[in-house]
Amino acid sequence: MDCKKMPEECRSIEEVRNEIDKIDKEIIRLFTSRDGLVKEIVKYKSDEEGIIARERKDFVIKQRGQWAEKHGLNPKLFRKIYTLLIDNNIKKELEIFKSKTIKSE
Fold first, then answer.
1. Which of 15, 23, 52, 54 has its CA at 20 to 30 Å from residue 89's CA atom?
2. Closest listed residue to residue 99, CA positions, set 64, 48, 23, 37
3. Could you read off the pLDDT of 25-43 as tens digits, one per residue?
4. What is the DSSP code (8-state) at residue 72?
């Protein structure tokens, strides 16, 4: 990551915004990598229930909230973020799974 300045080292609003932009770009890059893994994991799931994986979903959302809180962030916000993210991933995985099922029939 190209972020070189600590927040307290910034001397202007432009510098702060520039550092935020760098971080956001890295976050998007990481989400892109995560998305690739979401698409790949469908290969290892044999049915829709395995894709939905309610227990895993609940565990991940709770854990990410705990991780956020440990770092001084709002756990409720991060549970919401991960709920949206995982719900979107499930939708994507189901689409991939159904398209592969149709092709194999």
1. 23
2. 48
3. 999 999 999 999 999 999 9
4. T
